[in-house]
Design brief:
The complex is a heterodimer of chains A (about 700) and B (about 100). With about 700 residues, chain A is an alpha+beta fold. Chain A is about 45% helix and about 25% strand. In chain B, strands 2-1-4-5 form a four-stranded mixed sheet. Classes of the chains: A alpha+beta (about 700), B alpha+beta (about 100).
């Protein structure tokens, strides 16, 4: 072929089609010769020609690959030109465009991305404006790339996207690729995670337990905020990375170490121990150590949870104490009951012996001694019965303030002049449904106790007040319960009670007084009475400072109680006559004196027969009635005294009292209960009725 | 001939054209199956190094040149007829 020269131009119209024919034929022939397995051929001078099928295949495969990659990407991708006009989008963009502003023919191709963002109004317009600024900075070349996470919520669903803008430089043309990646799942997982983390942290921090994470060696790594509060730790850094076992007092460290060891061996370690807080407050803890296993089941860390059981232990201690008192009460009650019967028999035999007239003066005295000793023993068993709550209760509505005021004169006499008595009674009536005699007994015993704690004198303060307890305020007191209560408080500034003794003060026969000075039944009796009245006692004492007993008794509502004390008193028969009371037991003498005085009688009292005779001498004409104990020390019993007085004044009314049955005086001496005999312990009403009936007889 | 010799090949290709890529793949498979650990392949792209093709007298791609062992042989095509290729390389006797 010769393509050179002017002939080419001249004959181009004819020659070019002919040459193409030749080219096609040549290519056809080359393909045939190489069986389609050759892509290029070269001339002898090394010029390479690519065969047509190879050219086409190469062109398509490149475009297809790129399109396939772009379409396979889940991101919504758009190619922008330098002005921000969308030139091309991938397949994922199509779906994306349907749901938003790019929903337009051609999936938004031809729209200006920047303008779309600029026009955004509403909920997420702020983010759209940020995006526009970001795209501009990339297109302008001031930023190499730009990315932002933004929400794109619809009423139907919540979505988040990550937008990435990267510059695109191709020859002289420039633009950018914008990618929207849906990160909703990641965002939701993040939100859920942070929610659950916040919840967990909330639980941990508000927990009333001290929760710690320790490393395998037992060094502290973490502690919840609630725990730091409980442990009174102001600055966690001060304890961080320190050995947890070393926080415990030496005596507890073995238990702590053992629990730690169990945790290390993938077991659960538990123990209870006492350990003060960082500020030294004493606390009891229940500790559980559990292993925190890693993926291979190795106890990498340990979880230590300490629960403050101080209050619970205190409560348990109180309960144990009250159970102990219950047990002692049952025992004492049982013994006292049987013992009373034995005493009655001894008393009876002694009285019978004495009736016989053939006793020598010495034998007579010995018999009196027996009677006297039995009397003392009987008084003790009586108190024991009171302690064991087996005393007979005669309840009525009364105002504790009134009871205290009417006791006051006698109290002052009993406790002596060295002690100043102060009253601080509540302004309103302190109404109770209680046995008035027992209430007097409580006040008397507490006062006598206070007196004995102040041998050199001091102050005795008696207070009453109304208190209300709710569920919360009773939580720390075993016997307390919610409701309205009257609080009787008796305080002294005496010697106080030592902590060792405190646990035992209500036990019968427990006394710190010298031998012979106290029976050890005073507080036991108070305890029994208070329990019988469904109340409880709290004691606070400091050695050398004094003691306060607070007695809580259920308070009657004003309306149901009213001024019933007077009503009840009015129902008891009284009088103005003069009565000589002979009783050797001082406490009982005081009580009976008080009861009779309250009923209106003039009361003279004496501690034994001899004293009684002296009083008689002075007041013989005034005395209408003599109430005497049957068996008394001092050489003259009740029967003998009665006989002497009746001889002088046959019309004198006599009532005999004894802890034993009326038969104690023998067949010849007729005693009839409720007529001329009062069996101790007797109730106020029984006393009033018997006295009145005898006077009226 | 001995099958213990090291086989040295030079394969002339033209960019990423279909037949060239096919030839590279087929040659690799063949060497893996028959010449494991005793072959070297050099791929020469005629678009990048046209002068080497000229020097080796290569006028078509893909073309495989067996440089060693002697004698030098040239095989044009995608090397998809394994049997013929092995015979040409004298790795298998020619059958009827």
């Amino acid at each position: 072929m010769n393509l050179k020269g002017p002939q080419f131009l001249k004959d181009a119209d004819e020659e070019i089609p002919a040459l193409i024919e030749t080219l096609l034929a040549t290519e056809q022939r080359l393909a045939e010769l190489t069986a389609g397995e050759v892509d290029t051929v070269a001339s002898r001078d090394g010029r390479t020609f690519m065969l047509r099928h190879a050219q086409e295949q190469l062109r398509y495969s490149e475009a297809e690959k790129q399109a396939a990659i772009l379409d396979a990407l889940p991101a919504h991708i758009a190619l922008l030109d330098a002005q921000g006009i969308i030139l091309s989008v991938n397949k994922a963009w199509h779906g994306f465009a349907i749901t938003n502003v790019f929903h337009a023919p051609g999936h938004g191709i031809g729209l200006n991305y920047l303008e779309v963002c600029d026009r955004a109004r509403g909920d997420f317009s702020a983010e759209a404006h940020q995006v526009a600024a970001g795209v501009r900075s990339v297109l302008g070349g001031t930023e190499k790339s730009f990315s932002i996470e933004y929400p794109c919520h619809s009423p139907a669903e919540q979505r988040w996207f990550l937008l990435i803008v990267t510059p695109l430089v191709e020859g002289r043309r420039s633009g950018a690729v914008v990618m929207h990646v849906n990160i909703t799942e990641r965002k939701q997982a993040q939100t859920n995670l942070s929610k659950s983390e916040a919840m967990l942290r909330g639980i941990m921090d508000s927990s009333q337990d001290c929760i710690k994470i320790l490393d395998r060696e037992g060094y502290l790594l973490w502690m919840n905020e609630g725990g730091q509060k409980i442990m009174e730790i102001d600055d966690f850094a001060s304890v961080n990375r320190k050995s947890w076992v070393c926080f415990w007092p030496p005596v507890e460290q073995a238990a702590a170490l053992a629990a730690l060891e169990l945790g290390r061996n993938n077991q659960v370690g538990k123990f209870t121990g006492s350990c003060p807080t960082a500020k030294g407050s004493p606390r009891w803890w229940e500790v559980v150590i559990t292993p925190m296993l890693n993926d291979t089941g190795f106890a990498e860390k340990l979880l230590a949870v300490s629960r403050d059981i101080t209050a619970r232990r205190k409560l348990e201690e109180q309960l144990r104490q009250s159970q102990k008192m219950d047990a002692i009460g049952q025992l004492a009650g049982g013994v006292a009951h049987d013992f009373n019967n034995i005493l009655a028999a001894i008393q009876l035999q002694a009285a019978l012996l004495k009736m016989g007239e053939n006793l020598s003066p010495e034998q007579n005295e010995l018999t009196d001694d027996i009677g006297e000793a039995v009397q003392r023993a009987a008084a003790l068993t009586q108190q024991l019965l009171m302690f064991s709550r087996k005393g007979v209760m005669r309840e009525q509505n009364l105002d504790l303030n009134d009871s205290i005021e009417s006791m006051l004169r006698m109290l002052r006499r009993t406790i002596g002049e060295d002690i100043q008595v102060q009253l601080k009674l509540a302004g309103q009536p302190m109404l109770l449904h209680a046995d008035p005699g027992m209430m007097d007994q409580v006040l008397l015993n507490l006062s006598v106790n206070a007196r004995d704690a102040m041998p050199k004198g001091g102050q005795l303060m008696i207070e009453t007040s109304g208190v209300k307890f709710d569920e919360l305020s009773v939580a720390g007191v075993a016997l307390a319960r919610p409701g309205s209560f009257v609080c009787l408080s008796v305080s002294d500034n005496g010697s106080g009670i030592s902590p060792e003794n405190m646990a035992r003060i209500f036990e019968p026969f427990f006394t710190t007084k010298e031998v012979g000075k106290g029976t050890g039944l005073g507080l036991a009796t108070v305890f029994g009475i208070v329990q019988q009245h469904k109340g409880w006692i709290s004691v606070s004492s400091e050695v050398g400072q004094g003691t306060t007993f607070r007695i809580y008794l259920p308070r009657l509502a004003e309306l149901s109680g009213g001024k019933s004390t007077e009503n009840t008193s009015r129902t008891l028969p009284g009088g103005t006559e003069t009565i000589l009371l002979v009783e050797d037991e001082p406490a009982l003498r005081v009580m009976v004196n008080l009861s009779l005085s309250r009923l209106g009688y003039q009361v003279l009292d004496a501690a034994n027969g001899v004293e009684a005779l002296a009083v008689w001498k002075e007041h013989r004409d005034e005395i209408h009635l003599v109430l005497t104990d049957l068996v008394m020390p001092g050489g003259m019993n009740g029967i003998e005294l009665g006989a002497r007085l009746l001889k002088e004044k046959p019309k004198l009314k006599m009532i005999y009292a004894s802890g034993y049955s009326s038969e104690v005086a023998g067949k010849d001496f007729p005693l009839k209960e409720g007529v001329n005999f009062l069996k101790k312990p007797f109730q106020r009403a029984k006393l009033a009725q018997t006295v009145r009936a005898m006077l009226d007889a | 001939m001995s099958s213990k010799h090291l086989f040295k090949f030079r394969l002339y290709v033209a960019g990423e054209t279909q037949n060239s890529e096919q030839a590279v793949a087929n040659l690799n498979t063949l060497c893996q199956e028959h010449l494991l650990n005793r072959h070297e392949i050099e791929v020469v792209d005629v678009f990048k190094e046209p002068k080497r093709a000229l020097a080796d007298g290569i006028f078509m791609t893909p073309t495989l040149v067996k440089l060693r062992p002697d004698p030098v042989r040239k095989i044009v095509g995608t090397l998809s007829q394994a049997q013929s290729v092995l015979q040409a390389l004298e790795l298998e006797p020619v059958t009827a």
